[in-house]
Amino acid sequence: MLVDAGAGKAFGPDAGGRLLNSLRAAGYRPEDIDAVLLTHLHGDHFAGLTAEGKAVFPNATVYVEKNEADFWLDASKEKTVPEVFRPFFPQAAAAFAPYLAANKVKKFSGSTELLPGVRSIATPGHTPGHAFYAVESKGQQMQFWGDLIHAKDVQFRSPGVTIKFDLDSAAAARQRLKAMTDAAAKGYYVGASHISFPGIGHVVPEGKAFTWLPANYSVAGLKP
Ligand SMILES: [Zn+2]
């Protein structure tokens, strides 16, 4: 399973596009991916699904929340949103095309069990159908937060601060406070797309808000 598919070449030839090399470094080929779980349909999270019209993950089913897919895959919505969001519509159409043609897109509604031990958590705000994914095994949980947070040094301290890429700012701020409160209380691991490497860690209460405790890592990598 892969959570989000990266930007591919959506931001130009020199920005992003490193996901496949990172996957290979972790010991996986694109063909090994059975499921891509998309948190939401902003180009930096899905455009890497497809390259030159072909599915990058030929054996994968793409999971996406229904409200999210119905919004960004509907070209008539493009003119209803501010300028910054408009490129995502043609990007989504292109990225989804080979998967839709192969009947490999699975839309789900809200919070639901998708695969054994894997469930979505509805967190609309940043986008209409933004979803977290929670993975549970042997009493442990990890949550993948997508774009719940963009600026670590600001938004753990002040969860009410929003960015212009939040389609519904007030809802996005509410989701952030709720998620951080839950993670700090329960202590599970969190992965967040826009927190720099390792991007995985714990949320810890600090004063009236929170702080981020990154997971330990070694630049030497894992021993085989
Ligand atoms: Zn986003």
Please summarize what this structure is.
By secondary structure, the protein is α/β, with parallel strands linked by helices.
Structure in words:
The protein is an alpha/beta fold and 224 residues long. The chain folds into two domains: 1-108, Ribonuclease Z/Hydroxyacylglutathione hydrolase-like (Metallo-beta-lactamase, Chain A); 110-224, 4-Layer Sandwich (Metallo-beta-lactamase, Chain A), CATH 3.60.15.10. The chain contains six helices and 13 strands. It has helices at residues 19-25, 43-46, 66-72, 88-101, 152-155, 169-186, and strands at 2-3, 35-37, 50-51, 54-55, 61-65, 105-108, 113-115, 118-122, 131-137, 140-144, 189-191, 200-206, 209-214. The strands form three sheets. It has a seven-stranded mixed beta sheet with strand order 7-8-9-10-11-12-13. A four-stranded parallel beta sheet has the order 1-2-5-6. A hairpin with an 8-residue loop joins strand 11 (189-191) and strand 12. The two termini are 21 Å apart. The structure holds zinc ion. Zinc ion binds next to loops. Zinc ion (ZN) binds next to loops.
